[in-house]
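Worked example 4.2. Below are the chains of a multi-component assembly; read each line carefully before continuing.
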Amino acid sequence: MSAPVIEVRGLTFAYGDGPPVLDALDWVVPAGARVGVTGPNASGKSTLLHLIMGLRAAQQGSIILYGRHRVTEGDFYEVRARMGLLFQDSDDQLFCPTVLDDVAFGPLHLGASPDAAQEAAREALAAVGLAGYEERITSRLSAGEKKCVALATNLAMQPDTLLLDEPTSYLDDRSRDRLLSVLKELPATLVIVSHDRAFLDALTRTRYHLEDGRLR
Amino acid sequence: MNARGRDPLQSMDPRARVICAAGLCLVAALAQAPVSVVPALLTPLVVGLSARFPFQRLLWTGLRLNGLFALMALSTLPFVPGPTWQTFGPISVTYPGLSLVGMMVLKGNALVLSCAIFLSTMESPNLGHALARLGVPAKFVALMMSVIRYIDVLQEEHGRMRLAMRARGFRPRLNWLTLQTHALGVGALFLRSLERAERVAAAMKCRGHQGLYLATRTLHWRRRDTAWIMLLVAVTAGMLWLEWKP
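Applying the procedure described above to all two chains together yields the following structure tokens:
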């Protein structure tokens, strides 16, 4: 049996001198699982995802990803090449002027040639139904389109694990359904943080609830 | 250049455009004789006409610019010493003053026209790529690209904040409270931008960024671009000759 994709032990995190957001949290996500995480606002759901991606440092506890302890920034480079994070606010995630530049950014920084990166970007855009959007100016897209481009930036890196932070916020029904169908077909381990019960029901089997720093 | 062919500007390599604009601006800015500025004014004009550039779009900018020059002329003219051309009451306008103002107007318009024709006609991302390929430091290009990407977001955020203020009864007046409110607004915008910058940096890390700016596109330099540069060299050589001819 292969090692779990995500394993955290005794994870504790607090902002500044505040109370701990995550309190000695233990969690295991096996490879190929599709899990949903719910919880009240400010319960630490996004923080948990950011800790797993190595974007913040925990005060205590260990993070074991793909069977290896991850501590330094260097440890996480390798993780980020395989694990994608869909940010809650697409304007945070899309930082290039045009759609093609943005989607090609990941492959390019993983060492692909400009041509190969562009090819990967075109494929990823087609996969989310946005073929022909390559030269569009990112800031002029609608919220739904931005979310799909943000998903494409992840898909272009061919992740085997995808963490999604409130993927349906700001989306209308059509964009939401499109996102749903793309994720259904995706052969990846999924961790979805959402308030959208119906969306979680359609995509995940296991459900966790994060409250008072613990997952239940 | 012929007007019936494909748009000469759109088929021009972004790097060639940057070089043309920079070359014309540099020589025009450094020129000492009015006659040597004229080519820098004529070249973009001819190129713009042949590319059917919508000059009416420039009209408002041009008017404002020349209005500014008029103001500057009014504040400069009375103070330049030299042989008098005409006297208006206590103010005397001198020949050196006139030529100084003339140069200012010529140079200013040449610079704006060159940038408008060669630079403003391409999408801003292309400008970034062109600069990166021309050896402009990667950090500067990365900063510029971020500005291009986030200026709209900032503007939207500012707009939303203004709406929220107005929804709570804010009306700008000439008083201390208005100033205070504006200061608060600017402060909030700074803070939000800083937080966003942190989140963007996180997003860049997630996609393998380790501090380098890599250009996505491959630009294709063609023979026609070399021809443009030759033309530019000819024009600037002409300007230099006009400047220094015996």
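Take a moment to check your reading of the output against the notes. Chain B touches chain A through 29 residues (CB under 8 Å). Residues 125-215 of chain B form one domain.
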